[in-house]
Amino acid sequence: MIPGERIRTLNSHPVRAGRYVLYWMQSSQRSRGNLALEYAIERANAIGVPVLACFCVDTSYPEANLRHFSFMAEGLCAVGKKLEERGIPFMLLRGTPAEKLADSATDAALVVTDRGYLALHRQWRERVAQVIGCPLVQVEDNVVVPVEAASGKEEWSAGTIRMKIHRQMMRFLKPLESGRVQYRSPSLDGGGIPYQEAGDIILGVQERFPGPSPLYRGGEDEALQRLDEFITGGLARYPALHSDPGISVLSGMSPYLHFGQISPVFIVQRVLESGQAGTEEYLEELIIRRELSMNFVTYNPFYDTYGGLPDWARRTLEEHAEDPREHIYSRSEFEEARTDDPYWNAAQQELLITGKMHGYMRMYWGKKILEWSETPEQAFRTALSLNNRYELDGRDPNGYTGVAWCFGKHDRAWGERPVFGKVRYMNAAGLKRKFQINRYLDRMETLAEEHGPAGGD
Question: Which CATH superfamily is domain 306-451 in?
Fold first, then answer.
């Protein structure tokens, strides 16, 4: 049974006589471990109708480009096949949900959807709830502990949310068997295009740069393969080596989590079942740190702006805004990895080419943008723009939170210094002291030789 805290009805319409239950898939682009899908199947079986699934493709989605849409299209084509195998027709609707869902829901008894956390996602669901004539039921399945169940306010740090999540985490981790669709109707047509044409999505994408990642392919089977490889080859070494950018022991799950191509609950279950050393450290990142970011974007309306930073951080940065900088780089110099720091340039090249940057280097990267920009506000805009454009998991609660962390969010005040004030400082000497950082440079040089330096088409 799906815990009640995961389920929320977004309007007051009663269930009506309909030809199907419509599952509006958006943030959970998967068939495995998809609680919204399972809820739709459960309700359809109870009513005695089939399930029809749809996905709204908005090629004007803010800051999305060919890299993002290519990865997503691969995943949609894969999930369509799996839904078809379960007797669930899957169609694509071109346009925003508010534009397209009203027509597709005309013959629906009710509509079930998943949950997104950004302001645009909330607006989508609020608008759809208004324009359809049946219930819209939201099932929150992209976190372990539902956001409001974990906390009713914006949390200060990981330390303040950790126990709140741990106290109730296990009851949200109970496995749920996949339901069987009892009433099938392959001929259902909600006015969309076949999922097999998902690859054509990219033809309508106006922003053609950066191109697809050469290292990451979309789809839940791809996600599962990476997870299995991590559990068998990286999890035991994770506590000692996950911060080291020269050695790759990371799970690579963030792009798949961003597009909902794998469930965080499923990952946690698999990691716990493995019994591997490193489980505690990995789950701290996957659950506590990740769900802290959902808390941030849910409760802070300014999460995507400089104004969303803590008062103390903005105050200390502004007090040092006029401090002289050793270097000041333009947006294009940052974007093209043309700084005087080889480590920063290597991190930016990793981002440009692959669509993903090592987590420790991502922190260093953001801190240096702050140090080398004319103002902290300009630095914030630059870091967020580059993150959203090039990261496969950009435009994501984790991305907004990660950038904000570089400017003091979810951190404490440190010793005061130029430019940074009391915001935590990082430098190249720290990279050299902690790691054999030249191994990272070597890896990035090889990467550039194999795939080119700019990640183009």
Answer: DNA Cyclobutane Dipyrimidine Photolyase, subunit A, domain 3 (1.10.579.10)
Q: Of 240, 236, 234, give the one whose Cα is nearest residue 253.
A: 234
Let me know: does 393 contact 399? Beta carbons within 8 Å.
yes
Closest CA to 353 of 209, 270, 452: 452
Instruction: Give, in degrees to the nearest 5, the angle at Cα 225 between 219 and 228.
Output: 140
Instruction: Tell whether omega for the bond before 135 is within 30 degrees of 0, i.e. cis.
Output: no
Taking only the tens place, the pLDDT of each residue in 38-55 is 999 999 999 999 999 999
Q: Scanning the structure block, which residue is given the tokens 């949900």?
A: 97
Instruction: Name the token pair of 95.
Output: 């346009």
Q: Tell me the pTM.
A: 0.97
pLDDT in tens, 315-331: 999 999 999 999 999 99
In the numeric block, which tokens belong to residue 174? Answer: 């109970």
Helical packing angle, 290-299 and 397-406, nearest 10°: 90
CATH 3.40.50.620 location in the chain = 1-141
The CA distance from 51 to 41, in Å, is: 6
Take residue 93 and report the two structure tokens written for it: 């609707």
Q: Write the CA distances from 153 to 149, 290, 396, 398, integer angstroms.
A: 10, 16, 20, 18
> 11: which DSSP letter?
S
Its CATH class, for the domain covering 220-299, is mainly alpha
Tokens of 98: 């508010």
Architecture in CATH of 1-141? 3-Layer(aba) Sandwich (3.40)
| Sheet with 90-94, edge to edge strand ranges | 7-9, 136-139, 108-113, 20-25, 51-57, 90-94, 193-194
CB-based contacts of 449: which residues, under 8 Å, 6+ apart? Answer: none
DSSP labels for 165-232?
HHTTGGGG----PPP--SS--TT---S-EEGGGGGGGGGG-S---S---SS---SHHHHHHHHHHHHH
Give residue-wise pLDDT tens across range 339-373: 999 999 999 999 999 999 999 999 999 999 999 99
Check residue 455 and give its pLDDT: 45
pLDDT digits (tens, 9 = 90+) for 231-248: 999 999 999 999 999 998
What pLDDT, on the 0 to 100 scale, is given for residue 454? 53
List, by residue range, all CATH 1.10.579.10 domains of the chain. Answer: 306-451
